[in-house]
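Q: Entry one of two.
A:
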Amino acid sequence: MTILIMCNVGNSDLIADGQRPQRPRPDGEALWRTFADHQFDLPIIAPCLNYIRQQHPHASARLICFYTDQPENQITTRPDRFGVSLRDKDTIWFARIAARWVQTQYADWITEVHTERIESRHGPDLNPSVYDEVFEAYTHLLARLADPTVEVCYILTAGGIPACNFALQLQAIIAYAERCRFIYPPEGGRVTELRIGEKMLESFQRMNAIAALEQYNFPAALLGARRAKVADWIVALLEYAVYREAFDFQRAQQAIERAERHASGSQRAFCAELRDNLRQLSEYSDPAALLCEVAYNAEIAYRNGRYADMLGRIFRFQEGVLRLVVERYLSLPTDFSKEVREANLARYLEQIDAHPDLRSHLEAKTIDGKPLRYRDGPNRPVMQAMLEFVRDGGKRADGTPFATKKERERLGAVKAMLDRLDRLAELRNQSVIAHGFAGVSREAIEAIYKDDAEKIITDLHNIMRQLDIADTESPFDRIAERVRSELQRSL
């Protein structure tokens, strides 16, 4: 096992001959040059090393001691009211003494001891008491010292300047995550292992989940929530969102039932509402509800930046709209799956033949100069022709129109928006979700859609409104807002 120990050397970290040196730089240098003549002790560092050794008696360790060594200038050499300058407080010599002492006292356990000056990528010209300056410095230092073979990293949380301790702790948790442990060594007291690392990681993961929810990235939010060890009902609710987005309604049902069991009060009522809302989808019995779901799904793909997936959902949405119109106004079956194809095809042809105007309209339509093969079933071109027939006042056998004037006006608006969405067809066809391998970018979409990709989502919702489909708030919007609020409350 590889153990890494890191600490900041502070003014209180060295005892020489029973006394604490008052001016670390000049006093420390004098002690260093006469090292053999003195008795040293590390009242904060040594107890921590002993504790770590007890935890890992058969492992070797490496120690890194960070020290201050400020450049000489008017600010750092100016004495304070006690006659001590900032440079006088630098711990460069304390760190060297500590390293040499540790190498002697722990030679059979600590294989390497390094001293590292606190500096940024621009050098040591920084104020070690200023948080943002040392944060940048430790970003640089830990990136340079990164070691992927480290299995456990211990951080000493006492000693050193508060700003440096804060920066070291934060950058260490970023670098070593779950491998990082924090110990608090009160002088003369018992060394205590803290849970600050675990809590910081959980806070980071909550922030990751919140950021993911801003983009409606529910899989990433779920991963962050699990790692943050949030309440079970939140995890289950995010699982529900992930499964529902994937149209896996069966597992979504199981997830929302778990969420409801673990939730309480208004949260339980919210989960119950989502459970009821799912029934009409899981039974596949409500075409309007399924159409809404595809629109919600397309919007999630758009917010995620998954533009090829968005185009796939739009293609499915367009087809769903056409099927809804054909079924609603012409009472023709559009489900031609294997189990019902034979019966539905017979009923489909019988209905068309019973309305001469509809049949004449379809027979007059051509594609690339060839007759429309409407008798094979209602494919997209056929259903588009049927929509045009109803929109243009097509009549039943008894002479009455299939749609009222107001309905025809609405269908005209629907057809115009469907045609606008059709401009994206070639982009979809060349993408990986259809027949090619081309990428899809927002810029490519906006080059086709009048420089406004956002209008695609608006058109989807407008189509549903024109078809009298209740365009309620997306359940995914509500889930994202509810979970985001809960996670922010826990930060």
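Q: Entry two of two.
A:
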Amino acid sequence: MRRTNMVAGGTDSVAPSRRSRPGDGGRAGWGSLWRRRRADAGIALAIGLFTLAVAAVQIHRVTEISPIDEASHIDYVWRIMHGELPHRGDTYTSFTLEEWSCRKQASVYSELPECGVTDRSEFSDVITENYNAWQPPGLFAVVALLTRLGMVATSLDPVTLMRLSCAVIVAIGMAMVYALLRMRSLPRSLAAPVTLLVLANPFTLMVATTVSTDAPFLIFGVLSAIVLTRELSGRSAALLALLAGAGAGLVKTITLASLVIVFGVLVIVAVVRLLGRQGRWWSPLLTVVAGVSGGGLVTMLWGRYVLAHTPSGWTNRVLGQNNTEYVGSPVDEWLPTLTHVFGYTTGSWEGGPVTTYYGQLLAGLAGLALTVAPFCGLLALRGRERVLAGTAAVGPVLVVLLVQIQSWVREEVYFPIVSSRYGVTLIPLTVLVLALLLKPLERRGRVVLWCLCALVLVLVVADALGAGALA
């Protein structure tokens, strides 16, 4: 009788009939998700905007060109903005030469002509070939698009807009780091300050204030960490691995470093599950195949394009500047470099106006924390979290080996000094391990953490403003 009354249209029938309408369930689900994640979205936005603001201050203060290949990156973006791709052997455009001569570059200051000169004969003492023309166009295309939009909306010059575009990409990455920590059920009061501490690492603001192919390092580092955490939790990450691999391949080969290391760990996980006769042992292998297929296919296709557009007789003019030929066996040359990436601070650059005592202090503290955290995690964490710590601990060594083996295979040279920037995509995973270590902190501990975070942010802003500059 009760069922008949409900169908007949009594008051009890209103709620069931509304739930049955097409689309209502989806709207209710999205509404519920937004209500639960609204605070997180606001915090992530605030973190991104703070990062962007600090970067904008530093961009305003530092006008000189970074020696970390920025001139070649500016030239690449400028060419895409005008509908072309650079190829090996192409020299810098007049725009790049003018910006280079006016903005200057400290490492080659005396070799650059006076401001406004675009005659290539006046640049005879420096390399004017775009030696990074072989790199994939993915990031450069994004920066070119954002720069074009900025030129329509503002009166800022193109190079400043290129740098601000990279700052936007880093800001998105910072927001994604916060999201990664929240995905692991870490409380907001812990996830927010730990994320903000990433600004203490010198590479974060370096790539946010220059035209750098490392700008999306946090984005791809977060994606790599999600791939690993999902598979360790028994959920497939094959599609994400495919997209992350293809995306990283469109930026540059070394961006794949963290993904390659994660894939190696997943192969070990699959073998352990198989030997232990556990279910879904094949899932990690499927993710590895998907990721390798995405990154490998993009890398192979772009490599063929570069080869097809390389003029006969072309020689690499930068070969030997940062690398050298082998004297002994490759292993002998590699051994002294195995620790170079730990801490993720070596090889960074700061312009003169923001080279400060505060910045050097922050770099030292960040390097110490990012080195120690994974090894502490190996001792203190358990289960899947210990696997994360182990991956973060061995990752820097594996990055060095990836760089050295790639250089050996391609050009039979090695790097006497391996820059930490080759491994910065491992920073999000390392930060996740640090946050997991701090998770047991009670209220007083969280207060101390927030005070430490506030102090770091004050020093970051002071560094960007040039306070405490080195004489």
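A: Comment on entry two: Residues 1-20 have pLDDT under 50 and may be disordered. The first helix runs from residue 2 to 8.
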